[in-house]
Amino acid sequence: MEYFLSMAKEPKGYVYKITNKLNGKWYIGSHNGKIANYMGSGKILLLAIKKNGVENFTKEILFYSENFQADETKILTELDAANDPNSYNIINTGEGGMLGLKHSKKTKEKLADAWSGERNPNYQRDYSDEERKAMSERQKGEKSSRWGVRLTDEEKQHLRELNQGENNPMYGVSPSAETREKQAVKMRGENNPNWGKDFSEETRAKMSAAKKGENHPLWGLNLSDEYKKKISEAKTGVPQQLAECPVCGEIGGISNMKRFHFDNCGNEFHISEEHKEKISITLTGVKQYLVTCPHCGLEGGYKNMNAYHFDKCKYKRRKITVDEGKEFFTSEELAELFSLMRHSIYDNTQNGMFKPVKIGKRNYFKVKDIIEKFGLKEN
């Protein structure tokens, strides 16, 4: 197919062809005519010009047109330029950009080849910390190309649909354990962009509000039973991160601790009967995370064990200082003095086997009675 130069006097735009004199590869595009010496905007074309030099490319205007973008699309479609190995074009359209379009396999290979190895402008380039900081500063705040841009709900939904299922570049991709570890390392410690930052209460409130209600990415989405099952299977057997409340000292899963403790510790939460029923059904048959008390050896559910054992365990060893000549001790002190029989001594003193002596509000027991009963020696 041949295209001839029109002799329009006052053109608003034109369709052009750029040819590489070294290898014969070509690029067809269109322009509004407002920029002199315009040499195209195609990604692969610009890389080729940068590599070979603009002096090795020729530009010819095929024809002038009022509907230059539509005419370009027509030519590219008829030539199937995106799939021609001698073409620098990667899509068969002259309008609308890439929104909603999907590259063919050949186009992807063409793009990959154009950006691979030494053809990549960043090939083997090691940016210094100063360069990285300068690049970061150029994209912050009002300097960012996205500053002040707010997508409408329709635009958000459109973008969401474009990346669902097989259209998502990560669809079917399962990163290896090595890849996951590399990704984790990049976000640990000082590598984390939030490392060392102390957010103000105002900033925290803004961050919280940005994820509440309709602003939450999952707002209004009804997850399928299959998807819920996948989430459940992914979490099964994975111990939850634990956190300790700085107010009351209770330890528990970080999700519930953030919800009912920390700033909310001591506040009364009202849960509806319907919600209680849902919680009960959800937890029915679910084996609780079990732990063992290091002091008495008892095993039980984490929540109750944390409430009554560990540091609160009545059998926990405590350092006892015995003054010379002291004859009377509390049951806790006796259990520490005679550690080998500590459980029996504590239980028997509590169950009335030994007659206590009331001193103030505490019961004390004569140490000689304990030694005679059990035939023990002091530690």
Explain this structure:
This protein has 379 residues and is an alpha+beta fold. Among the domains are: 14-119, GIY-YIG endonuclease (3-Layer(aba) Sandwich), CATH 3.40.1440; 246-266 and 288-311, no CATH class; 328-374. It is built from 14 helices and 10 strands. The chain has helices at 43-52, 68-79, 105-115, 129-138, 153-162, 177-186, 201-209, 225-235, 254-260, 273-283, 302-308, 331-337, 342-350, 367-374, and strands at residues 14-20, 26-31, 57-64, 242-244, 251-253, 290-292, 299-301, 328-329, 357-359, 362-366. The strands form 4 sheets. The protein has a 3-stranded antiparallel sheet. A 3-stranded antiparallel sheet has the order 8-10-9. The longest helix is centred in the N-terminal third of the chain and has 12 residues, at 68-79.
The general outline is elongated
Give the SSE order as H and E letters.
EEHEHHHHHHHEEHHEEHEHHEEH
CATH class placement of the domain at 14-119: Alpha Beta
CATH fold description of the domain at 14-119: GIY-YIG endonuclease
Span from first to last CA?
Answer: 105 Å
What is the average per-residue confidence, as pLDDT, rounded to a whole number? Answer: 78
CATH superfamily of the domain at 14-119: GIY-YIG endonuclease
- Our Rg estimate from Cα atoms comes to 37 Å
Number of helical elements: 14
Task: Give the strand order of the largest sheet, numbering strands 1, 2, ... along the chain.
Answer: 2-1-3
Please tell me the CATH architecture of the domain at 14-119 by its name.
Answer: 3-Layer(aba) Sandwich
Give the class from helix and strand content and strand pairing.
Answer: alpha+beta
- The total strand number stands at 10
